[in-house]
Amino acid sequence: MVDRARGRAGTGTFRTPAKPKPPSSLDMAVLPDHSLESEGTYRRLGYFDVDLSASAAESVEVEQCRFRNADLAGANLDRTRFTDCLFENCNLANLRADGSSLHRVRLSTSRMTGFTWAGSRLKDVTFTGCRLDLSGWRFAAFNAVRFDDCNLTRADFTNADLTGAQFVGCDLTGAQFSQAKMDGARFVNCTLAGIGGLTSWEGAIVRGQDLIALAYELAAALGIRIDNEDDA
User: Fold this and answer.
1) Do 145 and 120 meet the contact criterion of CB atoms below 8 Å apart?
2) d(CA 180, CA 187)
3) Which of 108, 124, 102, 18 has its CA nearest to residue 67?
4) pLDDT digits over 64-114, tens only?
5) Which SUPFAM superfamilies does this chain map to (predicted)?
6) What CA–CA distances, in Å, run from 142 to 6, 105, 117?
7) What angle do CA 82, 136, 40 make, to 5 degrees?
8) What are the sequence ranges of the domains in the chain?
9) Bond preceding residue 22 cis, omega within 30 of 0
10) What's the predicted TM-score (pTM) here?
11) CA torsion 179→184→188→193, rounded to 10°?
């Protein structure tokens, strides 16, 4: 069943991300033959237990590939496009891919500290159990994107379009949302302490118990002083 939610202003919606379309068969990637190179195209390959951490390429096309226990830490892949791909137990820490796109991609139990996807697009993407602390999403656009049980502490969503994003069971402590578009963005059972940019949260959908935890941050953002002393 498709899950849909509408923001207060009526412009934001969320739908369940479409699943990646797997290939009928996979060929095992062999390095250096299948190393990622600028303007290269890679289809129906299994990158299992490979080291791609030294990758520095632009305008790469990656389609129907599966990454398992792959190391892409510190890679630079600007203007790269991943379509119908799976990432499992991978190391994507400090990977930078500005101006890139993820389309029908699923990432699970992967280390993604410092992952940067600025000025990029995400459509039909699921992150499950990923460590995404200090990740950067400035000016990124989210369309049917779901974060499940992810560590997003101090993530930066400045100027991002989150109208098609859902966060479930995530730790967003200290995350920044200044100037973000939030109408229809959903937050369920999340840790929201120390959130920045709360004045941009108009139209966001927050579970009641989460909103209670946000009370102090909202009050501070609105300049409200809270008096905890009993009436005289």
Assistant:
1) no
2) 15
3) 108
4) 999 999 999 999 999 999 999 999 999 999 999 999 999 999 999 999 999
5) Pentapeptide repeat-like
6) 15, 13, 11
7) 25
8) 27-221
9) no
10) 0.88
11) 20
* Residue at token pair 């951490």: 53
Q: What is the rounded distance in angstroms from the CA atom of residue 23 to the CA atom of residue 65?
A: 8
Whether the Cβ atoms of residue 118 and residue 139 lie closer than 8 Å to each other: yes
SS3 159: coil
Q: For residue 101, give the nearest of 76, 73, 125, 122 by alpha carbon.
A: 122
Name which CATH class applies to 27-221: mainly beta
19: Cβ–Cβ under 8 A, 6 or more apart, which residues? 104, 106, 124
Q: Are 183 and 12 in contact (CB under 8 A)?
A: yes
Neighbours of 3 (CB within 10 A): 10
